[in-house]
Amino acid sequence: MLVLFCLYLCILMMLAWLGRRRATSKTPHDFYLAGGKLGFLVLICTLFATQYSGNTFMGFPGKAYRMGYAYMMSVTFMMCIVTFYLLYAPALRARAVLRGYVTPCDWIHDRYRNRGLTSVCAVLMCIAMLNYLLAQLLAMGNAVEGLTGRPGSFAVGVLFLSVVIVLYETVGGMRAVAWTDTLQGIMMFVAVLILGGYLLTQHEELALLPARILELEPDKVRPPELKVCVKWLSFLCLAGLGGAMYPQGIQRIFAAKSTRVLRWSLGAMVLLPLLTVFFAYFMGIMAIEQFPGLGKAQSDQVMTRMLDLISSQGPVLYLGVTLLLLGALAAMMSTADSVLLSLSSIVIQDIFVKTIGYSASDEKLLKLGKISSWVLMGIVVVVALQLQGITLFRLLVIKFDLLVQVAPAFILGLYLPRLGAGTALVGIAAGCAVAVTGFALDPKWAWVHPGTVGLAVNLFICVVGSFWFPSESFEQKP
Amino acid sequence: MEQNPTHFLKLRHWLLLLGLVVLSVPWYWPDDKVEPFVLGMPSWAAFSFGISILFSITTALLIISRWKDGDDEC
Question: What number is the ipTM of this complex?
Fold first, then answer.
């Protein structure tokens, strides 16, 4: 396994070198969006790798184990992200090609011509991405520790893999990132096909599964209570829309070779959770019968335990399990590299250039972007090493509550010509205030997430404000 | 009337998708009804999964059939 992983790292560096050779110009558009030339296979794999982190395959089974059959709702969650893309992707894609957008805030800046709004949106996106990057590094460290079996290897794993990620990201840009995503996506897909095929051969055993779990833990077979259902609908809204606001996802919409490639990729993406998330979910359900009575920390390891069981049943299954484990570690790396590339583009293009007003040639901005990648990764590595072993679940949860507050300004800006920057800013401020207050108070009686309430307030302000305080139509601005 | 390629979904399509998402969460299912078991799942989970399949296929079909290509190759 370790040998295969080292081979994978060598291939990553080769792809970075190839990505550098394929660069047609030293412009932000070429470096951050691969010149807008991503074809169907690369686009769908990079969308897949960006949306599905290692947590999908290693963390979801643990949650299914604890929650039982009710975690079925996770299958819809991944589909909702793609559906929320449809709220803005067609209109924004057409505009992005016409105006040469590189970052999501290029649209905000072009639409509202307001430095304050652009910087607030950029900062909210950066907070969410730093949070996400930190989660990937912590997961990578834990995975390396699990793989080597040495307690001290967390720090070495985080440091070494972070350097590898920044190296190939700064050398090859979006091309290197997208190609490595393709490699990772193919590995995961083959692994899920092999292991999913194995599950299908066990259909007679699986038919008896609910009856057995009903005897062991009946609550895990019964339908969820109303409060859980309402909270889940709130989560679908919050995380679905928040997931569709991830800058690295939006940049892939800009980077598609054509609308045809983009719509076929999104059409396929919405079907993938039926195979991938359902597989992760069902592994967790099977573990309830195989390993009953596990605590919270142990239940997070159920996927590894299930894979251990399966891998001993033949060479093909061993190959599937190896590919899945390798793919899960690669998924953490590919999510981290996509986030880092997007983060550095926003820091340079939106914060340095648009907000501070720094002016330089494209070549110099690219150099600054690469330096910022090293600096940002360095900061996150230091934080990850400090936080080793501490549960950050609550800190990680708030990223969607804040990121989703960008959505009204971002999406309604396309459809409400009279929505002004001031109204959008007030909406974001109110939404964030509600989300943070709700998050801090954490009322146990609440049936919906604080971010969802904040989003509703934000939306109300934007819609009503565009009628009561209309701004000059953006279509009339130069 | 010519379809606007950037507004390819009408209100009825959005309502259909919203309805499927709301149905995919089993808030309406009786508390104690878990049988019959279907495909290794209690009936409510199998129904929820069926709705999820319908939701994903409907969304995919809408994307493929209604979103028209623009002349936008980079």
Answer: 0.89
